[in-house]
Amino acid sequence: MQPIAESIGIAAPELVLATGAMVLLMLGVFRGNRSLHGLTYGGVIIYAIAGFALLGDAQSELAFDGLYIADDFSAYLKVLIFAAAAICSIIALPYLVRARSDKFEYPVLIMLGALGMSMMVSANDLLSLYIGLELQSLAAYVLAAFHRNEASSSEAGLKYFVLGALASGILLYGVSLVYGFTGTTDFRLLQVAVTETPAVGTVIGLVFILAGLAFKVSAVPFHMWTPDVYQGAPTPVAAFFASAPKAAAMGLLVRVCMDAFGGMMSEWQQIIAFMAIASMVLGAVGAIGQRSIKRLLAYSSINNIGFALIGLAAASELGISGVLFYMAIYLPMTIGAFLVVLSLRGADGRPLDTMNSLKGLSKTRPGLAIALLIFMFSLAGIPPLFGFWPKFAVFNAAIDAEMYVLAVIGVVTSVVGAFYYLRIIKLAYFDEPEGTVLPQESRVNGALLAGIAVFCSPLGLFLMGPITVAAARAARAMLTF
């Protein structure tokens, strides 16, 4: 029996977030909505403290009798999650004030969601996996419906809740099947139990578990909620949904496949390859006819998840490091694109979300148009923008694993996807403006937008070495423990 004090020390980042969320909640209760700005920046400090707590983690330590694992893999993903959560908390401030939804609960819900995600990537048991997943999901349901007085936001929250509950039930049923046929939910014991020829019930349970996790990463055919929720939810919430939860769910999917069910590689590899192909194709084709920028970015998210799944389908150290590298670049690209959408306001001050609102942006807001160009080219994977290299990494992993068809389909869908990214650039640079776009209302958001744009530009390549080294070390730690 492991001492509880030792386990708490290993899980220090989660302890910091849980304590911080409770403190922020109580401050908000007593000070009211006027404390929103203070709570938001206080939350950023808490994320920083939780990040520093990761530095004290020894490599590959188990806590709470094997339910929790702290290793380089989880630490890598937690850095991405904490950074994305902090940025998504800050960029929401002007939007919430303008929409009169400046409630103090917003940064608290973001932090509780980050806590659930942090538990997800450190799960070493199917039970702790489920607890972390549900904690993240419950916060996300409330965030999707944060604009309680708007029908579209309430509809988004309801759709997300109903489909999320269905996915949760599917996942839990899969867990019960796996436990029934193997007698354990511990990842290490599962790895041993499924090494020999697995029972049919174990295979079916694995399929159900993968279906539940596919919902969280918006992989086809469990993507149906994504465009509607992204469009209906407040724009900062959509930016959050497209970033931190995707990294957490992808990390969890990698750990479940490579760690718990590593002995059933031939079974789950086919499923992952199918989801990768279907997500790349549907994400590329589905975005072409969209008139809403947020819906287009939703399909872009599905498309990019398909590319990341190529690395997992390769089922190698090179492939896993490619997935981790992909998520490190995907998060800033996506948050930057949503920051551009947040910066679009018409003459009446109302947010703009139509493709036509981008017309002539280079003439009305030249700086914003440059940032948009960088993000779109980077999402399209056009060199020398930073977004090219993660795609190259996962394609290289597929070729190394002799999955040539998967790599070719990835290249073809990447070309198809470039069409709708380039159409946005065409609207911004070659069409005449159809209305007025107001200047940036927040200097902080403007600085974040500029910083993310520089990161995604060729200047960001100076950081590629440290990121790829960290991704390789994280992949190695997860595979060798």
From TrEMBL:
Its EC number is 7.1.1.-. The chain crosses the membrane at residues 12-31, 38-55, 75-97, 104-121, 127-146, 158-179, 199-225, 237-256, 268-289, 296-315, 327-347, 368-389, 401-422, 448-472. Residues 123-416 form the NADH:quinone oxidoreductase/Mrp antiporter transmembrane domain. It catalyses: a quinone + NADH + 5 H(+)(in) = a quinol + NAD(+) + 4 H(+)(out). It is an enzyme of class 7 (translocase). Keywords: Cell membrane, Membrane, NAD, Oxidoreductase, Quinone, Translocase, Transmembrane, Transmembrane helix, Transport, Ubiquinone. NCBIfam families: NDH_I_N (TIGR01770), PRK05777.1-3 (NF004440). This is NADH-quinone oxidoreductase subunit N.
